[in-house]
Design a protein that fits this description.
Length: about 325
């Protein structure tokens, strides 16, 4: 089935998981396996099989807490930040035996973002200490440190060759992974945020590398990844100063999706900039959302996790 506006409008909740009352603070799909992992404010980690729609494993990190969870390349290993204590280490966890493999120490304040390179064992962490660190899963030694004003965020492109760092005042800097210590090779500024204290909380490259998504409070910007030109601006409707909600591209890059203040998931076209759909069903504001890399499947979460799928029966030929 090819994705289009009609198919996007047909999406509905195929499965809902309400194992807990605490907020799901992050979620991630594995790039090649049919797996989804979530982290909760109740210190829980849940693993789901997206092929069967079944919960597969539940773990807990009661000592450290868990946030910003993401898969490594191995389907039985994740990295996550901590939301308890003062150590602020990033932790590398084996899901197979619930054992920590490594601790990545260096940040002096809460880690707010983690992202894994799609091609190598590199990953990045951003922190309230106003730094972005580059790491390699194979060693606890930081591979690089970049200073960034405000609360930075970062993302790799889908080839693993470039990464961006978003900061305050609408500034996004692009770095070559191989020579990032030499500084950015390009700097973009989103005009709407010039001289603003508003910081980017989330950035993401589209799968084809042509678009860059950047979220700052209620604002969801779609930029040309080559020129930095502003293509579209959407709104999640959250109040000024409110917690920014995650946004995501569809697998084919034609749509941007985000949770919104009215508890809907909204989808906008990256071609026209028009709103295409508003999916209803969440009891709370969905703060986390991802589109599965290899399926027509979306995961979103407030305190409950929802898996959204298209209504395929609506597109079956009539007998």
């Amino acid at each position: 089935m090819q994705l289009n506006d009609e198919v996007v409008r047909s999406f509905g909740m195929g499965r809902v998981f309400k194992e807990k009352q605490a907020r799901v603070n992050s979620l991630d799909f594995h790039r090649t396996e049919d797996l989804l992992v979530t982290a909760g404010d109740d210190d829980s980690i849940h693993v789901y099989n997206t092929s069967t729609g079944q919960a597969q494993r539940n773990l807990f990190s009661k000592k450290y807490g868990v946030s910003n969870i993401c898969f490594t390349h191995h389907p039985q290993a994740v990295i996550h930040a901590s939301n308890k204590g003062s150590e602020h280490a990033v932790r590398y966890l084996s899901l197979h035996d619930n054992r920590y493999l490594r601790y990545f120490r260096g940040h002096t304040a809460r880690v707010t973002m983690l992202c894994m390179s799609p091609k190598t064992d590199l990953f990045m962490s951003a922190s309230l200490d106003r730094t972005v660190r580059v790491w390699d899963l194979r060693t606890t030694q930081s591979q690089g440190l970049l200073q960034a004003p405000g609360q930075p965020c970062a993302a790799f492109d889908q080839q693993g060759l470039v990464f961006c760092i978003g900061t305050q005042s609408g500034i996004i800097k692009l770095y070559d992974v191989r020579t990032f210590d030499k500084g950015p090779f390009e700097t973009f500024t989103v005009p709407d945020l010039v001289n603003s204290a508003m910081a980017f909380s989330y950035t993401k490259f589209s799968a084809d590398g042509k678009l860059l998504l950047a979220v700052a409070e209620r604002n969801i910007f779609v930029l040309d990844a080559y020129t930095g030109g502003l293509l579209h601006r959407f709104s999640s409707g959250i109040p000024d100063g409110g917690t920014a909600l995650e946004a995501t591209f569809s697998a084919d890059c034609q749509y941007v999706l985000s949770g919104c203040e009215d508890r809907c998931i909204r989808a906008w076209s990256t071609l026209t900039g028009q709103e295409v759909a508003a999916w209803k069903g969440h009891a709370g504001v969905p703060t986390s959302i991802k589109w599965a890399p290899r399926r027509m499947l979306v995961a979103s979460a407030c305190s409950a996790l929802a898996l959204w799928v298209p209504n395929t029966s609506a597109f079956m030929p009539q007998q």
